[in-house]
Amino acid sequence: MIVNSLARPLLTAAVAVAWLTVAGAAQAGQQLAGAQQQPSTSQAHADPAAAQPAGGYVGEATCVTCHEGQVKSYHDSAHGRAWNAASPKANHGCESCHGAGQGHVDGSGDKSKIKSLKAGMRASEINAQCLDCHTEAERTLWAGSPHELRRLSCTSCHSIHAPKSDRGQINAVRDVETCRPCHRAEVQKLSRSSHMPVEEGKLECASCHNPHGSANSKLLKVGNTVNEACESCHADKRGPYLWEHSPVVQDCTTCHDAHGSMNDRMLVAKEPMLCQRCHVTVQHPSTVYDGYQLAFSTSANRVYGRSCAACHQNIHGSNAPSGKAFLR
Question: What residue ranges in the chain does DSSP mark as E strands?
């Protein structure tokens, strides 16, 4: 009985040790199996292929070794906003626009192995790259627009790495300087004595025109006609009027030059010659042009020294019951 009482504690301790040994062996087996299935962190970092993006992309860290200035310039623009899921920075970085760079790197910087988006590349290819992201809002009607048909590329006006404007990444300080090379006549009119306040900084070309395309004439941004565009600012000329003036109803540019003129109020001709292009002054009141004899009459009375608008003040239209002659 004494032997049995002494052996019982020893037997219990031996069983406990055996259970601990079995549990430890099982845990060790699980850890070994996991280690065989997944490489260790040190092994993953040691393998260059595991650290590089797939699909031939080398990553922005590789681009910056040769193109540090270009990488920094795009980081400072809207393209470098990592919080925007649609930005290049949030995707493949430089390679979002220039394509996978593995071939470029393997070719020791071979330019033919990467999209340069510079001169020599077709405008349609450059535009297709930009339009992958920029297809909404004011760029919706780019396809078939006058600038697209003239084979202009996005980089004709915009610069990704060296913009000079504080918005829109324009390659000039002001919009008007971007438009000047192609639209010299219109820009030159902005320096005449009576002009749109573009030089003063109150307006810009894009205030009236959408360079990316429009569904109406002259790439106008507002309205469907020239009149609607003008009346968006000159609301007092909108009408409707009880007595309408036909040239005003048809087109504001019948009498006004939309960019600038050497005449008062941006008129296309001086008064009264402006009025007398339509109103033949054989007598007063004058008659609207209605034939060969009136047009070439040598007895026509020309009014000089004062304008027709001295009396016909409401020349855009009148709502007075007696305003047929636009006197009030």
Answer: 194-195, 243-244, 260-261, 279-280, 287-288, 317-318
